[in-house]
Structures are given as structure tokens and as C-alpha cells.
Amino acid sequence: MELSLLAALNAERQARRAAILVTEIASGAQRLVKPEAIAADPLGELLERQLRTGKSGMVEVEGSSYFLTVQAPHPRVVVTGAVHISQAMAPMARALDLDLVIIDPRTAFATPERFPDTALLAEWPEEVIGRIGLDGYTAFVALTHDPKIDDPGLTAALRSNCFYIGALGSRKTHARRLERLAEAGFDAAATARIHAPIGLDIGAVSPAEIALAILAEIVSTLRGPRRQPG
Amino acid sequence: MISTETDILRAAEDWSHSGRQVAIATVVETWGSAPRPVGSHLVIDGEGNFLGSVSGGCVEGAVVAEAAEVIADGKARMLEFGVADETAWQVGLSCGGRIKVYVEKVN
């Protein structure tokens, strides 16, 4: 591998951008394909399919073997609300190998004591989200019930291509939220991206159960399409 | 702690920048109960230092030895390890799986 190619691959990963390194086994020829160039690549369809799985693998095309090193950004969950549910979520996300970032400007909530070993930002979402960036490998979850904190996060998420957006709250709370988002200029198709009520319907009651339901919904969205029953 | 594929490829770049000769070994195919998934990397330098793993310890020695050849002649190689292989009795996978490992030099 050319060092410049290795450096380019590492740079894409550093920037949380997907990329595929194509290696033709017989000749050793290699090229780096970025998502925007997939359609024009001779192996386009195969690359597209492989990128969706997020896994590296060998493919055969017209008698030639190619190894595809798929580099998809690490999935990440960005949460507004350093609350009970996110406290329960932190160790679960770790076990699932999901990066977790918790945002809450209320410094009484966002304390390292309550969130050991967790990326915690005691700032307003509008201040931090531009900095951390929301992308197609990010799930956004609003948990505070406080529009002052949740709405700026949701607005940023709706403007991004986050793979999952979820918001905690009763149907009534969510109806009011939808009204506010409509006033902010988001049409029904845009706000339909928000999972609310949030989480898989497992009858969750405790904060840990709700955290489980939310993470299960995130994993299902990330890894879907779901297996068909029977 | 170096625990992810991410850090390993970064290390390969850093080693190479610092003037070390480097080879990258990648698990490209697995059959049966292979210990490390496709895409796992082992990075080896000219002195035989290595980072990462392609099998959780079963065949690393053989891969490191082969990497020295790759670094010497610059030619990439495909290695195969497994119970069906002649060399299995020396360097096989105790779990009964089979793996193919692609070893290439960083130029």
C-alpha cells in the first residue's frame, strides 16, 4: 500500500467520513473510493452494498478478486439531557460499543460524579452541536423534556442526516413539540423522522428499561432492515 | 491501549513516517469459527515488532515471519491458515476455523 493512500484512509476516518479501500488481489492495485465517488466506480453497486453492511469483505467480479476494506465511522449517540435515563444509558452504550456524548447546560445535572467515564458537555446544544457535528452515523436523542434544551438539538438533528432521531415525551408533549417545529419551518415529512414515543415498545417503565428500549431502537435502525418474521 | 483497527492503521502510518519498514496484514476471508473478523489488521515492522492481531495469537508468529519476506521483496502475499492446510499441524487454528490473510508492504 502506498503510504499516501494509508494516510488518506486514516484522514477520512479521523474526519468521521466513510471510505472504501479497494485492493485487487491479483495485481495488488489499490484505490480509495469515497461515498460521493461510488456511483461512478466500476464496482459501484458492490461498493454501495458493502458500505451499507459496514463490514470489510472479499468480492469476485468477472474472475477477479477484490478485497474491500470498508471504513464506516463509529456509530455515535448524542443525547441532550444528563438525566436518569442517560445515566442508565451510559454503561449500556459502552457495552454496545456505541460512542455516547451527553449535552446538558444545567451544571447540577451534568456532573462527572453522575456520569463517570462519559463524554459530558455542560453547554447549550446550539453551542456544542456545530462543534461535534451530526452526521449519518450519529443518532440524536432528546431527553430533557425542556424545549429550551431539546429543541435546538432536534432542530440541528433534523437539518443533518442523522440516522436516528428520537425525543422523549408523552403524545401531548410531542404534539406541542411538533407545533413548535412546524413554526420553525419543518414540514410533516421532516418531523416524521423523529421517533416519538421514543424506543421500542417493550413496556419500559424504569429509566434503565427506557434506556434499553431507546438503544434497541437505535441498533435496529442502524443494522436494519429488520429480519422478516417466519 | 491499542484496541481497535483504527489505532492500528494509524500506528502503521506513524511507524512508516518515522522511517520504519512496515507491512500490513489483513484478514480477508474466514471460514468456520475464526477468532478474528474479516478486516482485522496486524501491523509489522522490519524488526518484527507488531501491533494488533489476525487470529488472537494462533498464527501471528507465522504472519510476522512472512511479513519480513514481504518487506524484503515488496511483493504482497496471500497466506492461508487452517485445519485443511498442510501446515496446520505447525501453525493451525486450534478452533478448527480457516483464515486467509493478505500481507502487503507500505511504500
Could you characterize the architecture of this molecule?
The complex is a heterodimer of chains A (230) and B (107). By secondary structure, chain A is of the alpha/beta class. In chain A, 39% of the residues lie in helices and 20% in strands. Chain A is built from 8 helices and 10 strands. Chain B contains 3 helices and 5 strands, in the order αβββαβαβ. Chain B has helices at 5-17, 60-73, 88-91; strands at 22-31, 41-45, 50-52, 77-82, 98-106. A 5-stranded antiparallel beta sheet of chain B has the order 3-2-1-5-4. In chain B, strand 2 (41-45) and strand 3 (50-52) form a beta hairpin.
SSE blueprint:
The complex is a heterodimer of chains A (230) and B (107).
Chain A: H1 3-14, E1 19-24, E2 30-33, H2 44-53, E3 57-61, E4 64-71, E5 76-80, H3 84-95, E6 99-103, E7 119-121, H4 125-132, E8 138-142, H5 147-159, E9 164-167, H6 171-183, H7 188-191, E10 194-195, H8 207-223
Parallel strand pairs in A: 5-6, 5-8, 6-7, 8-9, 9-10
Antiparallel strand pairs in A: 1-2, 1-4, 3-4
Chain B: H1 5-17, E1 22-31, E2 41-45, E3 50-52, H2 60-73, E4 77-82, H3 88-91, E5 98-106
Antiparallel strand pairs in B: 1-2, 1-5, 2-3, 4-5
Oligomer: heterodimer
Largest beta sheet of chain B, briefly?
A: 5 strands, antiparallel
Distance between the termini of chain A: 46 Å
- What is the string of helix and strand elements of chain B? HEEEHEHE
Structural class of chain A: alpha/beta
What Rg of chain B is obtained from the alpha carbons, in whole angstroms?
A: 13 Å
Output the helix-strand order of chain A.
HEEHEEEHEEHEHEHHEH
Query: Helicity of chain B, in percent?
Result: 25-40%
Please state roughly what percent of the residues of chain A sit in beta strands, choosing from under 5%, 5-15%, 15-25%, 25-35%, 35-45% or over 45%.
15-25%
InterPro entries (chain B): MoCofactor_Util/Proc, XdhC_CoxI
Protein name (chain B): XdhC and CoxI family protein
Pfam families (chain B): XdhC_CoxI
Domain XdhC- CoxI (chain B): 15-82
